[in-house]
Amino acid sequence: xxxxxxxxxxxxxxxxxxxxxxxxxxxxLGAREQFKRDVHxxxxxxxxxxxxxxxxxxxxxxxAVFDVIQEAVKGDEESLSSTERSRLVQEIIDDILGxxxxxxxxxxxxxxxxxxxxYDHVYVERRGRIEPTNVRFVNxxxxxxxxxxxxxRVGRRVDEASPMVDARLPDGSRVNAVIRPVAVDGSSLxxxxxxxxxxxxxxxxxxxxxxxxxxxxxxxxxVGRRNILISGGTGSGKTTTLNVLSSFIPExxxxxxxxxxxELQLEQPHVVRLESRPANIEGxxxxxxxxxxxxxxxxxxxxxxxxxxxxxxxxxxxxxxxTGHDGSLSxxxxxxxxxxxxxxxxxxxxxxLDLPIRVIREQIVSAIxxxxxxxxxxxxxxxxxxxxxxxxMDGDVILMDDIFEFEFDEAHxxxxxxxxxxxxxxxxxxxxxxxxxxDVDPGLFQR
Length: 447
Known about the structure:
The chain is α/β, with parallel strands linked by helices and about 450 residues long. It has 3 domains: about 5-95, no CATH class; about 105-190, Beta-Lactamase (2-Layer Sandwich), CATH 3.30.450; about 200-445, P-loop containing nucleotide triphosphate hydrolases (Rossmann fold, 3-Layer(aba) Sandwich). The protein has helices at about 5, 10-15, 30-45, 60-70, 80-95, 105, 140-155, 200-205, 210-225, 240-245, 290-295, 315-320, 335-350, 355-365, 430-435; strands at about 110-115, 120-125, 130, 165-170, 175-180, 190, 230, 255-260, 270-275, 305, 330-335, 370-375, 380-395, 395-410, 420. A 9-stranded mixed sheet has the order 9-8-10-11-7-12-13-14-15, sandwiched between helices. A 6-stranded antiparallel sheet has the order 3-2-1-6-5-4, with helices on one face. Helix 13 crosses helix 14 (about 355-365).
């Protein structure tokens, strides 16, 4: 009997031996999927509950899968080429230990984001542009199995009572999942991949995100303990810029990082990383960014880095910046530097304190020295558009000066090109930097 005929058969004996272990018996198109299912059943028969053990070594599983495939095609050695067998081994391992059809996308270093709009529509982001893929799940149930596998690893659940969930993959990639009834057309899954390679100063210059002058100025500001807020939209590169600026912090200082999902990759030796925690299944045990900011003040930090401020934690951040924790860094979603300060103001009001607007703005002016605003342009490139100094107040209005500003080069027509150039305005805090032993080159502000 040839392989093609054997692939249409699934051992009845194995079905009885895998009681209590879920095996996907949905009808799948093609002999390839039927064969994978047969191999999976044989694996369960051979390894039993060990197949799903967290202690199962990936190399051992790979050997077992290969042996089972060899058994399945015994007597018909020409049916599968060595390349085909290797591919089948990888796909079966991905289904058992990984995220099934998404695994090749996760391994592709050129992909920064994966977007699943239902089981049969998968998109990715490459170099800032969204494009469709030919990746498909078998059906809605298959997609739900993958979602459940992700969220269960971090002690979360997703069901009709709680149809939205945030989670994190073991490599640090951020995951958001939404299922029916909230997701009308079927389950949706979004994965923001964790950057395995740390981008540095040279990378930002090579990509045109910043210029050598602007980076030197920001380096001086970080060393001189200026409080810096990085603003921008989703996917504009705020976290990457935050990571680069954090690398300028001297190694002899104690750094406490606070994030929703740990993404920062600091290379200094004295770093304490804190991560917020959602409520458990019973709705208890949540630890917010605000809780972590307040606790960090008791940890003797030299620098506090907040991955993103998005709620009442803004009040605690301002308090930290105003009470001796100079040189703090954070990011915020906003459309411009001025909008970033307005958002901070709004988030302070979320703390529930009846503070006058003028008092909040005075706190902002006293706490934040610089706003670095970043954008992703229509060609997918990411650029710092403005570096603005928070100068003071005129009445109830916060005053800001653009130290660097992005100027578009009209010669490139529809392709948005340009350079981040100094405006000629010299920051007012250079004297304070000098007092801290940082001499800023005046030439940085000349065009």
